[in-house]
Amino acid sequence: MAEAPGLIKAHELTKRFGDKVAVDHLSFTVEPGRVTGFLGPNGAGKSTTMRLICGLDRPNSGTATIGGLTYAQLARPLHVVGALLEARALHPGRSARNHLLFLAETQGFAPRRVDEVLDLVGLRAVARKRAGGFSLGMTQRLGIAAAMLGNPAVLLLDEPVNGLDPEGIRWVRTLMRQLATEGRTVLVSSHLMSEMAVTADHLVVIGRGRLIADSSTNEFIQRSSDRSVLVRTPDADGLGKLIVSAGGTIEPEDASAGNGTDDPGASADDGATSIVVTGLPAPRIGELAASASIVLYELTPRLASLEEAFMELTADSVEYGDSTARAATQNRPSEQPSEKPSERSSEERSMS
Amino acid sequence: MSAPAATVATAEPTGGDPAGLRLMHAEWTKIRSVKSTVWSLIAFVVVAIGFSALIALVISNTWNSPGNHPNHATLLNDPTAVIFGAGLGLGQLAICVLGVIVISSEYTTGAIRASLLAVPHRIPWLVAKGAVFAALVFVVSAITIFVTFFLTTAILRSHISISLGQPGVAKAVIGGILYLTVLGLFAMSLGGLIRHTAGAIAIVIALVIVVPPLVGLIPGTIANHVHGYLPTQAGQLVAQTSQQSGDVLSGWQGFGVFCAWTVLLLAICGALLVRRDA
Known about the structure:
The complex is a heterodimer. By secondary structure, chain A is of the alpha/beta class. Chain A contains 15 helices and 13 strands. Chain A is elongated, with a radius of gyration of 24 Å. Residues 255-267 and 323-352 of chain A have low confidence and may be disordered. By secondary structure, chain B is mainly α. Chain B has one domain (35-275). Chain B has helices at 19-32, 35-61, 69-77, 79-109, 111-118, 122-156, 169-194, 197-217, 221-229, 231-235, 251-275.
């Protein structure tokens, strides 16, 4: 058992509710020191998996361990794992302070730790008010306070930004990044890809209880991207012939994408045409253009957004999607306006 | 709300308290920090003392009315049954409600998830909860029963003298306290089995006040024995001063039967608690 104390390991985890398989032979690990996004459509089994890790539900088969131990084997569990599982995991008639106080008492923590976490989440002023009167955002903050009570090495956060205002969302993001930087394990579930794109270093994607992807966020986007290249040139015909003879395919860029990525005025003025090339990498296109002395105004490898990559991967595993929505994702027109690469890279910089 | 700076801190365990004491301390914080506890206990104390005193006043004021002499015989034979009958018969329902709520509210509010994240071992959790709740009911019942006893005996003093020194009276008073304490645990185990407050309360109250008289209506000795072994029917015998004709069990035997029912239900509750998802 020489595992890092914060390493979460799910091994062949399976949970059935009656006939329905919620989690299906799911195996993955979550490493300390980074934010791991736990992604999947609604009903994919994210919450159930988190409940299995915490011992709230019993798996039908398989194991989930934290640092090599099951949750029940942890002597003071809140000292090792802090979990925000569902927004309402508290008695509405109990004050915020008493909720945290009884949790602290189960672990033998000093009552002043309760005040510390109340300060941490900014609920000190309402500590003696009934938790039932709290807004969703305040309830989430109280849940985060409870998770932080034991200063744990592992944090499991199930949709932590649900119901938070923009300021609260930013606060949770910053907190998660800080906790990961401190070397803790942070597993955060979400069905919002855009949220994960700016928060998570690593992604575990599941659909219908099964593992779909387990990779770094960048890798996930790269692997799932269309691998198309946007090219803008005044000599589209000439370049097009070269590309086709080199084995690529071309299609005119659709108008909506053009509006999204370019200044429309510029494209009108410079007389250039935008085409989308698939089947050839950007450097090869650049070489072809140079060999024929064709001027390029733009040569942009297109990355699918995380949202698109996710839709593509989970299109078959949407539990409650209606059939038309599913068909739409599968036969999606090749392009939706993708984010500008420059924006994405700045987000990545701010992440690290 | 500022930058999340203070994540480092004093979350080191402070006390060398044994785990059992920590759990009981936490359960005490839980039970005292919700209003349903306070209101249930106030309802119990007020109803128990109020109704017993009211009945005692009625008996006292109508003492010399013609036709009341059979009551005098009952009162002489089993004074504590008369003294406690009205007040505890109703007041015990508040203990039943509180017993159910103590555990079912964890499920209906979702607090069970926070509880079991902190205490993943469910049997120690149930034992700590039961111990704290039983201790609370014992103390409140003891105060209520002694107040009821001294108040009603004072009201009746001009007609009949009842004291703790008389045969069976002290046993009946202690028995009443013990009966209420075990009744609390009986209700708690059903709350843990059924998990829904309304459903569990309905079933407990049916078992306590609806089923016994219905079974009592069935003629025959078998029915008579079934009736005598019903949980609360058996349990209440210990609060009588003397055994009545028709009782199939003695006071302590009846209390033993009630305890056996309660232990059985708690065991089932514990087993299901471990097996079921929270």
